[in-house]
Write a structure and sequence with these properties.
The protein is of the alpha+beta class. Strands 1, 2, 3, 4, 5, 6, 7, 8, 9 and 10 form a ten-stranded mixed beta sheet that branches. Helix 3 links the parallel strand 5 and strand 6. Helix 1 packs across helix 2 and helix 4 crosses helix 5. The C terminus is likely disordered.
């Protein structure tokens, strides 16, 4: 049995979420991205004698997109050989193409059991894309933008005020106020560190579309080791409210200093999911190199597989 690190991208608006819904019986849950990936892995040749079950590095909400999410999966064939990455990518992406899935497998790397897609992650980077009309009455939106970009219906949004507000979130903070309650038995650590948070001007997705000229485009980009449930969408919602003059920097400071699920300002509305994109999952390249198994090596058992130093 060999572990494989997978990197993949998807358009989240076509699925009801990333994570497969739990079920006692195995059902091909192709309405979720995880379920579609696991179904695609069943098509590789020779067929895996164990059912593919992904361990996801990051969980994105329904409607959120990803340019570079990752997961690991364990596969074993009757010949006890390592699958070639090119063969897995070809079979999986052919399945996605034939089934009209908006998912693509970008990379596949055999790794030792010391490498874990979630625990080995060093940082995650998210981008939130939104657009502002140049004229107040203009609300005709280009179709590609409607899938990837939040349409802010205010032409007098204060960019400088929102940009200054991003600095309030930088560093080690208790983000309880900016996280949604989740049903779980495990203890949640709400103190997280945000490494960077910026607001940058962007370009239209389809510049030759006449409708794209009616707006200016902007990206919130934030980077941290880990994020809480809906944290990015709530932080961006607070900055949107700040740029529209609905709240002040003091209001954001209070929400951070007095952390509580009940303390989110009533004028802060979490932004829609379709503007959020998971840009990248970053790993230590030296660690990944040490833990990568050359494809020509014969796999060992889980108990004796080569360990990283």
């Amino acid at each position: 049995m060999v572990r494989y690190l997978l990197k993949f991208s998807y358009i989240g608006t076509h699925y009801r979420g990333l994570q497969r819904q739990p079920s006692e019986n195995f059902i091909r849950d192709t309405d979720s991205i995880q379920g579609a990936l696991e179904a695609a892995l069943l098509t590789i040749v020779p067929r895996s004698v164990i059912r593919p079950s992904l361990c996801l590095s990051s969980r994105t909400d329904a409607g959120v997109h990803a340019f570079g999410n990752s997961a690991h999966v364990e596969l074993e064939n009757k010949y006890s050989t390592i699958y070639k990455a090119s063969d897995i990518k070809q079979k999986v992406n052919r399945y996605f193409f034939n089934c009209n899935h908006y998912i693509r497998l970008l990379d596949c790397t055999p790794v030792t059991y010391d490498f874990h897609s979630r625990a080995s992650c060093k940082s995650r980077t998210y981008l939130y894309r939104f657009m502002i009309p140049k004229v107040e009455e203009e609300h005709r939106v280009s179709l590609p933008e409607s899938i990837h970009t939040f349409h802010l219906r205010s032409h007098n949004f204060n960019i400088d005020r929102a940009r200054r507000g991003t600095q309030l979130f930088i560093g080690k903070k208790d983000f309880t106020t900016f996280s949604a309650k989740s049903v779980t038995d495990r203890k949640i650590e709400y103190v997280r560190s945000l490494q960077s948070f910026t607001l940058e001007e962007a370009q239209p997705l389809m510049p030759f579309d006449p409708l794209s000229q009616n707006f200016t485009y902007w990206h919130f980009i934030c980077k941290g080791k880990s994020f809480l449930y809906k944290q990015v969408r709530r932080m961006v919602g607070a900055l949107i409210a700040l740029g529209m003059g609905h709240i002040t920097e003091k209001d954001i400071t209070i929400m951070l200093q007095v952390p509580s699920h009940q303390n989110l300002h009533p004028r802060v509305i979490p932004v829609p999911s379709h503007g959020l994109h998971l840009l990248n999952i970053e790993y230590d390249l030296d660690e990944l190199k040490r833990c990568t198994i050359p494809e020509e090596e014969e796999p060992q058992s889980k108990d004796t597989v080569q360990r990283c130093n």
